[in-house]
Amino acid sequence: MTAQIDLFEQLIQENVYTLSDITKSIAYVSVAGNDYNHYLATNGSLQGFPSFIASVVKQTTTNLIQLQSLGFKRIVVGGLQPLGCLPQATAQTSFQSCNSTFNDLVTLHNNLLNQSVTKLNLESNYHNTFTILDIFDGFKSVLNHPSSHNIKERLKPCCFRVSSEYNCGSVDENNVKKYLVCENPESTFFWDRLHPTQTGWNAVYSELEKKDLYKILY
């Protein structure tokens, strides 16, 4: 993310964006969980997870300050979604229940982020510069009441691999598909092991629109 912001700053220096563009815009910062997936993929321990989370939030805070220094008056940072409810985590229970351990770690991330953003706002000349978009609550609202959004399959992905060596979208050397797709993607919340379907995101958006988005946009 830091590298992306540096590239964005370069565009400002090259007058691709003006200061007026920046001050009239809302910056959205997304920390979606790739850092934590990489941590687990490189054999990071559960015991070391809390300190790693603290380091991710600390760097995110540095990034928020950098964006503010570029001239943004409104900066929104997304909270982390319930990673324990992603199909890659729920597969262990045949997509029946979320992983509470992972969700507890997500709660730690979101709490630390809330504390950091509160502190930034207190130190800012504009006390509402930084806002958190509660993605976690949006996801949980939909997953706890899927039928209210016409969702029939809340944890099982629509597109899934035929074996562990493949992913959704994989083909073999003969271009034979190594994945299966459900008949009604519009009735499922998750598309693959990590990402919601269009229906899923629409449902989350409708929940966010009721509370957080209204505060941000108006």
Strands of the biggest beta sheet: in what spatial order?
1-2-3
The N- to C-terminal Cα distance equals 27 Å
* Secondary-structure element string: HHEHHEHHEHEEHH
Which value, in Å, is the CA radius of gyration? Answer: 19 Å
- Helix/strand-derived class? mainly alpha
Helix content: 40-55%
Strand content: 5-15%
Total number of strands: 5
**Shape summary:** globular
SSE arrangement:
Layout: H1 2-13, H2 19-23, E1 26-30, H3 34-41, H4 49-69, E2 74-78, H5 87-90, H6 100-123, E3 130-133, H7 135-144, E4 159-161, E5 179-181, H8 198-210, H9 212-217
Describe the structure in your own words:
This protein is mainly α and 218 residues long. It has a domain at 17-133. It has nine helices and five strands; from the N terminus they run ααβααβααβαββαα. The chain has helices at residues 2-13, 19-23, 34-41, 49-69, 87-90, 100-123, 135-144, 198-210, 212-217; strands at residues 26-30, 74-78, 130-133, 159-161, 179-181. Helix 4 packs parallel to helix 6 (100-123) and helix 7 (135-144) packs across helix 8 (198-210). The chain is globular and about 55 Å long. The chain starts with a helix and ends with a helix.
